[in-house]
Design brief:
By secondary structure, the chain is an alpha+beta fold. 33% of the residues lie in helices and 24% in strands. The strands form four sheets. The protein has a seven-stranded mixed beta sheet, with helices on both faces. The protein has a four-stranded antiparallel beta sheet with strand order 7-6-13-12, with no helix packed on it. The protein has a two-stranded antiparallel ribbon with strand order 4-5. Strand 6 and strand 7 form a beta hairpin. The longest helix is centred in the last third of the chain and has 20 residues. The radius of gyration is 22 Å and the shape is globular.
Length: 371
């Protein structure tokens, strides 16, 4: 493990760019911290923190100049691995026939460096791998993007009001799934980051920084910062026996109470780092000379998502909310051997009705009593 000064973080970004990576990291845009292409250290949200609670998000100033002093914004890394819109194939009229061309999956993938991946998001990437890189079916577009990305994780030294990763075992400390991991330490006397590589390509990046080894005191201080982040979390989800409890309460009357508040707006699924529902649509141009089959993000909260020839199998908000919550916390376990929730809290922050997945799961477990 090495120790670097803030200027070396900027050096790391430049090393990645020289190696041909498009560096994607946190930056401030439209009043939020979002992930987008960055060119250097000045693009990072230095001295920016956030305050989050149910249906509430705002940025605030930090006096310590931390680069990673925020928690999470509305954008997840899913956007760069599973684009919101992708062309599967196109057909171009050629006389009386059509020439079929491959879609985005056939394009040369861009090398991407994901800078600032939080531990809960590392878990989300692992879960997306289960979905899109399964043994039976592999999504070529996801695979190409995943194979050509390098992951620079950042351990959390602060937690937001909706974070509950500690109770899920997904944070605030990273345990694998990254090429490089950083821990930022700020104090009155010094601002530095510890850096550790977990893969050969990560080690190749770190070596170019020519950084000294971290001292025992620096390592201890970094670990203490992460431990404080865990202690900050007031939100938690008791996952012990939860899948069974949800299965046994499929017709619980509390689902009606949730449905009265839920707007079925799909915000929770759009910001969720593991939701993967999509739909396929066929479109043509006005001349009829070109047609495309496209995949785009969709949501199980959409009334059209479950419309089939015989009608809609989930016609009510009650049914759709129940499907979302039980899929995350119950059915995922049957499908993929793990829950589909990573405790990031985005669905709580960005729900305009302030619905809290941890509170609703607890209410179902406790016979409708909110805790």
């Amino acid at each position: 493990m090495q120790s670097i000064e803030p200027a070396s973080l900027g050096r790391m970004i430049q090393v990645l760019k020289v190696k041909g990576y498009c560096v994607v990291g946190p930056t401030v845009r439209d009043g939020a911290v979002v992930y987008a292409e960055i060119g250097g250290l000045d693009d990072l949200p230095r001295g920016v923190g956030d305050e989050q609670s149910a249906a509430s998000y705002r940025l605030r100033d930090r006096e310590d100049g931390a680069f990673f002093g925020y928690t999470l914004g509305p954008v997840s890394w899913k956007k760069f691995l599973v684009p919101p819109r992708a062309t599967l194939f196109s057909a171009i009229r050629n006389g009386r026939g059509f020439d079929v061309a491959a879609g985005n999956a056939a394009d040369p993938p861009q090398k991407m460096a994901f800078l600032g991946v939080r531990p809960c998001e590392l878990r989300a990437l692992e879960l997306l791998d289960k979905v899109f890189l399964g043994d039976d079916v592999v999504d070529p577009l996801y695979k190409a993007n995943r194979d050509n990305s390098i992951v620079i994780a950042v351990n959390c030294s602060t937690s937001g009001g909706t974070c509950f990763c500690a109770s899920m075992g997904t944070g605030p400390s990273a345990h694998g799934g990254y090429d490089i991991v950083l821990t930022e330490v700020t104090g009155p006397d010094r601002h530095y980051l510890t850096v550790d590589a977990d893969t050969a390509r990560g080690e190749a990046i770190v070596q170019e920084l020519q950084a000294p080894s971290a001292t025992p005191a620096e390592i201890e201080e970094a670990e203490a910062a992460v431990a404080r982040a865990a202690d900050m979390q007031g939100t938690r989800l008791d996952i012990e026996g939860l899948p069974r409890a949800l299965k046994d309460n499929f017709d619980h009357p509390h689902w009606d109470e949730v449905a009265r508040r839920c707007l079925a707006c799909a915000n929770c699924t759009m910001v969720c780092p593991t939701c993967f529902c999509s739909t396929v649509e066929d479109v043509t141009d006005l001349t009829g000379s070109r047609a495309e089959r496209r995949r785009r993000w969709d949501s199980c909260f959409s009334s059209e998502f479950t419309r089939v020839a015989g009608g809609n199998i989930r016609p009510s908000v009650r049914a759709r909310y129940r499907q979302w919550l039980t899929h995350k916390l119950e059915h995922w376990v049957d499908q993929f051997g793990a829950m589909g929730c990573v405790g990031c809290g985005r669905c709580i922050t960005w729900c305009p009705a302030g619905i809290d997945i941890t509170a609703e799961a607890a209410a179902i477990r406790n016979n409708g009593a909110q805790v």
